[in-house]
Amino acid sequence: MNPFATETLAQMAFWVVVGLTFAGASIAVFPRNILYNVLGLALALAGVAGLYLYLGSFFIALMQLLIYVGAITISIVFAIMLSRPLHLEVPRRELPKVAMGLGASVVFFAGAVGVFSTTHWVPAADRGMDWSIAAIGHMLLTKYDLVFEVISLVLLVAIIGAIVTAGFTRRLSS
Amino acid sequence: MMQWVLFVPELFYILMAAVFFCASLSRRQQPSRLYIWALTISAVGVVVTVLSARQEGMLFFDAYRVDLYSQLFKLLIAMGTFWVVFSCSELKGVSERQHAEFYFFLSVCTLAMMMLVSSVELLTIYVAIELSSYSLYLLVPMRQRADEYAETGIKYFMIGVTASAFMLFGISLLYGVVQNTYVTEVIRILPTVIHEPAAVVGLILALSGFFFKQALFPFHIWAPDVYQGAANQVTTYIGTASKMAAAAMVIRFVGFSNEASELFVQLLVVLSILSMTFGNLVAIIQKDLKRLLAYSSIAHAGYMMIGILSMTQRGYASAIYYAIAYLVMTYSCFMVIMRVAEDGHNLQIKELAGLHKRSPLLAMTLMLGLFGLAGIPPTVGFTGKFLVFAAALEKGYLALVIIGMVNATISLYYYLIVIKAAYLLEPVHPYPPVPVDSWTRTMSIALVILMVYLGVFPDQFVALTEAAARSLY
User: Are B380 and B328 contacting, i.e. CB atoms less than 8 angstroms apart?
Assistant: First the structure.
């Protein structure tokens, strides 16, 4: 294949992945059925995994799939199962609230774009290290050891919290 | 080579969490036994933190720094936790089945905040603040008749995660500009690139996570509802110990810019003024004592900011002193609330009527605490405000100091309303006398002595805070 065709193919793949991410994000926000929202979120997260792949980070793309698309989405589904029944009527969307939400996000987006475009970004010096899985593993067990350990404590608190909170609701509804 | 001795206070609170984790597994819950355990362990915790106060060193590949600054704040956090546990003897606000989990979350949160004040690496800071926030998100809805207060928990959680998102975004911008996550490098590089929009915006957004914890003005919306909706002990914890960690981190992050950005300083001035004025004006119309203290905490975040934004060592030292003062004064007020509202309900100001007859000692503790918060001379609150204002005057912020003083005068009004209720009002229908056991009596007397002693002889404490501020950089 000539290099031009490869380039075009890569570009196309990039835009397809971006499209998928945006489509997933809007499904995650707009439908009123919360299960559709979760599926949309999964799609958006898979799209982000595709972006990582495009940027050449195979490992992070896989982790994104494994952790976000797999684990996080499943835990959200669990949370939905523990919360109020789906057949109940959902409250109507109020126009002022939607407008305010939209306004706030537009302001934030414009601000972010402004900051990004006016800042003079200096590319980081090449660290000259291999970013293989072995290197990441070494980093996790040396430089980022503490964070790595504390995250497990965060998960423990989250699990116990989920048990305590779900115990509440079950007792109330029964 | 790991010098694990430096990590002893944190290890101790990990142990405390493990004890209550095991206790939560048992089928039968005995609240009184759990209380004795919690009280003993947290008292030993204070001793452990005192013993490790003079330690210094770096841990975990320079991501964790133990110095006087961090150890002082760890001591304040440990004190706050001990005081909160002390008042848990009648933990009526929380369902009896959940006492073990309550203490578990309390100890994990304490541990997380201790890690927070020692962390000098942005990722570690972020994970530590999340750990403490998660525990607080879970503690807030832990109240009997939870359905009534469920909204509070959800509101706190939603605002909290929004603040976290802003903070992460800010940290990523900071990383983009500085290209390093270590605080020492950030301090070295950031002032040279502070003219870039991304640097200032990143710093402000990163600070917003701590402003949320501190309830500074635009991030204060949660405070009144959470103070009112959470169980009295949880409110006390949020109002005392968790404020200490937030103050420590705000001081550390504001120091990043090192005065290089005029815009940043001006923004802090505006936030400080808005926070003081808003908090004090809205507090005037409150009927619920906990809500009143919530608005007063918003105002006090503003006062503390006056010291911090001076960005001198003296300013930081005065802010640390103010934090100490705030811890003692707020806890005194909350201890009285927890004693008077023994069944864990929300105390209205009018319920304090005739407190000086029902329990003179508690009435006096409350009065001194409120005088301190208002900044009346013999108490620690006056010295705190004096030091903060002096540090700001040294840098020429005259207008800011005048606004602060006007605010202190406004605040006197609503603190006096509470004191009037406790001392001058006759109860409409007789309230039962407040039982005060000997432990509470001892604690009240200790708090009263502490408030006056810190206020009248502040020299050695000021020297301590100055040494702590020096060790910051």
Answer: yes
Alpha-carbon distance of B16 to B28, in angstroms, equals: 20
Nearest beta carbon to residue A161 from set B121, B134, B201: B134
Closest CA to B332 of B359, B364, B303, B307: B364
CA gap B255, A155 in Å, rounded = 32
Q: List residues bridging with B57 in a β-sheet.
A: B66
**Buried (b) or exposed (e) across B227-244, using 16+ Cβ within 10 A?**
bbbbbbbbbbbbbbbbbb
Q: Is B300 helix (H, G, I), strand (E, B) or coil?
A: helix
Query: Considering CB atoms only, which of B134, B147, B201 is closest to A154?
Result: B134
* One pLDDT digit (tens) per residue for chain B, 473 residues: 457 788 888 999 999 999 999 888 877 778 888 888 889 999 999 999 998 888 888 888 888 888 888 899 999 999 999 999 988 877 777 877 788 888 999 999 999 999 999 888 888 999 999 999 999 998 888 887 766 777 888 889 999 999 999 999 999 998 888 888 888 888 888 888 888 888 888 888 888 888 998 888 888 888 888 888 888 888 999 999 889 999 999 888 888 777 767 888 888 889 999 999 999 999 888 888 889 999 999 999 999 999 888 888 888 999 999 999 999 999 999 998 888 887 777 888 888 888 888 888 888 899 999 999 988 888 888 999 999 999 988 888 888 899 999 999 999 999 998 888 888 888 777 777 777 888 888 989 999 998 889 888 888 888 888 888 888 87
Alpha-carbon distances, residue B125 vs A55, B55, B206, B244, B313 (angstroms): 28, 21, 11, 15, 23
Pick the residue from chain A with its C-alpha nearest to B24: A160
Give φ, ψ of B65 to 5 degrees. -120, 125
Coil, strand, or helix at residue B119? strand
Q: Which residues of A26-59 are buried (b: 16+ CB within 10 A; e: fewer)?
A: ebbeeeeebeebbbbbbbbbbbbbbbbbeeeeee
The residues that bridge with B262 in the sheet, in sequence order, are none
A152 touches chain B (CB under 8 A): no
* Test the B interface: residue of A83, A116, A153, A171 with most B CBs within 10 Å: A153
Separation between Cα atoms, residue B346 and residue A86, nearest integer Å:
34
B51: which 2 tokens? 């013993």
The helix/strand/coil state of B58 is: strand
Picking from B41, B51, B47, B39, the residue whose alpha carbon sits closest to that of residue B18 is B41
With beta carbons less than 8 A apart as the criterion, state whether B298 and B290 touch.
no
What pTM does this model have? 0.86
* Residue B250 CA: distances (Å) to CA of B69, B133, B207, B311: 13, 16, 7, 11
- Report ipTM for this prediction: 0.84
Cα torsion B372, B53, B304, B164: sign: negative
Domain residue limits, chain B:
3-470
CA distances (Å), B119 to each of B7, B49, B370, in order?
A: 12, 17, 34
Residue with tokens 């000692």: B361
Distances (CA, A) of A162 to A114, A117, B22: 40, 42, 17
Residue B64 has phi, psi (to 5 degrees) of: -140, 120
A172 in B contact zone (CB under 8 Å)? yes
From chain A, the residues in CB contact with B177 under 8 A are 119
Q: Distance between alpha carbon A4 and the CA centroid of its chain, in Å? A: 33
Q: State both tokens at B32.
A: 């009184």
